[in-house]
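Deliverable D2.4 — example input (structure tokens):
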């Protein structure tokens, strides 16, 4: 649908909502195109293409709000949508904090973030990539089977409007590819994976590299051993180290802080990491996988230092949670078609340290190099942390053999203080971390 027609429909919804008594209104319109292709043992088993266009209306009256949505955008359906919202709103409880962006606060100019590839890939090119990735893995000596490979491409167009004059839009796209390979036979088999993501096709890691890496990782895990329970340093590979950013982000989410359900609720402007740790959220990162020029309420986004020299500087806030906490929104509102805005990070990452992963490992007499986490027993009320995992034993600075069936445990308050980061940061997804050392965790064999 062209931009003018989308605006026409949004204007209609806003005017009719005002006529029926709404105080504030916003409208979100999203178009999505998705292609997903999967193969297993060199045969294409999945080929899906979908297109959708959906519209959401947030109707606020007397500090009560409802959200209604539809993918039927003819005039009669839109009239019924507003009528439905106007009848529903009287039945919901008051929300004294709900609001929309004010005219003076909404974004005025959209920056070019290079987050949309104008070229739509052909089905053939995607098929070739996914088959190439799996073949490369199957050709690794010791690989005996495959759980398959999959590639996906997505393009999204997002339009936001509100009754204070907001009228903005942007487009984004991305590629993602992964391969899962199995090594070994009978009761001695191990699986591993590798993945890559990018905005532009030309920046996507070559499929044969993805497949080969997955196969090699699977072979390295063969013949794992058990270890005795003890306290020791644990090194987290980048793909599992980023899980701490997820726990951290959930703990400083404005909703958790406002409800008092986070172990960090009293830690604003307090030291929670060592002084070497810095964490940044950058929604304006060029070619960033989670970059966006404005948030789900139309506020301009900006790069923010979340942790500076170990000190927690801010929460993730949207307008509602900022209102509750008597603060200003950090422009982290994330919005779905049928749900109210809620704060979420964008491109969140640990800034890298100064030591190489090799030297980080080389300094350890006995410890664990963790490559996979399983299950989750993480209590964000008090910070207690316990997860299953697998990886490799480190002895005298060398990785010597694979281990599995371990559980690592500690408390996030203590973990955060003991983190040491390597210098190998790569931006492969929304949450990114370099290799991470956490000293003296309980490792149960």
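Example output (designed residues):
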């Amino acid at each position: 649908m062209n931009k003018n027609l989308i605006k026409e429909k949004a204007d209609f919804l806003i005017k009719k909502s005002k006529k029926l008594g709404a105080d504030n209104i916003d409208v979100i319109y999203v178009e999505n195109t998705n292609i997903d292709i999967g193969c297993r043992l060199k045969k294409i088993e999945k080929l899906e293409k979908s297109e959708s266009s959906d519209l959401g209306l947030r109707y606020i009256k007397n500090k009560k709000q409802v959200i209604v949505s539809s993918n039927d955008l003819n005039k009669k359906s839109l009239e019924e949508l507003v009528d439905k919202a106007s009848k529903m709103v009287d039945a919901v409880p008051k929300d004294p904090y709900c609001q929309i962006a004010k005219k003076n606060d909404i974004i005025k100019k959209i920056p070019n973030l290079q987050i949309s590839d104008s070229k739509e890939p052909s089905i053939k090119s995607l098929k070739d990539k996914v088959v190439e990735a799996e073949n490369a893995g199957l050709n690794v000596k010791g690989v005996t089977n495959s759980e398959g490979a999959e590639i996906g491409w997505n393009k999204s167009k997002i339009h936001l409007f509100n009754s204070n004059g907001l009228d903005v839009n942007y487009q984004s796209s991305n590629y993602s590819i992964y391969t899962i390979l199995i090594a070994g036979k009978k009761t001695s088999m191990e699986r591993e994976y590798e993945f890559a993501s990018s905005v532009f096709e030309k920046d996507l890691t070559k499929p044969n590299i993805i497949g080969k890496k997955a196969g090699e990782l699977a072979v390295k895990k063969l013949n794992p051993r058990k270890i005795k329970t003890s306290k020791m340093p644990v090194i987290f590979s980048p793909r599992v180290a980023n899980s701490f950013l997820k726990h951290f982000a959930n703990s400083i989410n404005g909703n958790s802080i406002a409800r008092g359900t986070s172990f960090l609720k009293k830690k604003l402007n307090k030291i929670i990491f060592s002084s070497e740790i810095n964490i940044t959220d950058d929604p304006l990162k060029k070619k960033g996988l989670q970059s966006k020029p404005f948030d789900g309420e139309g506020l301009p986004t900006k790069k923010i230092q979340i942790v500076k020299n170990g000190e927690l500087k801010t929460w993730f806030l949207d307008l509602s949670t900022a209102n509750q906490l008597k603060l200003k929104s950090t422009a982290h509102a994330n919005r779905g078609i049928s749900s109210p805005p809620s704060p979420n990070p964008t491109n969140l990452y640990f800034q890298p340290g100064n030591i190489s992963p090799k030297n980080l490992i080389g300094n350890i007499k006995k410890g664990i190099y963790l490559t996979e986490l399983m299950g989750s027993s993480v209590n964000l009320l008090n910070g207690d942390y316990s997860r299953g995992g697998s990886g490799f034993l480190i002895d005298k600075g060398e990785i010597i053999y694979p281990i599995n069936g371990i559980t690592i445990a500690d408390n996030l308050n203590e973990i955060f203080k003991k983190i040491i980061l390597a210098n190998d940061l790569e931006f492969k997804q929304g949450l990114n971390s370099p290799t991470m050392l956490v000293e003296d965790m309980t490792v149960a064999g």
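The first strand starts at residue 24 and ends at 40.
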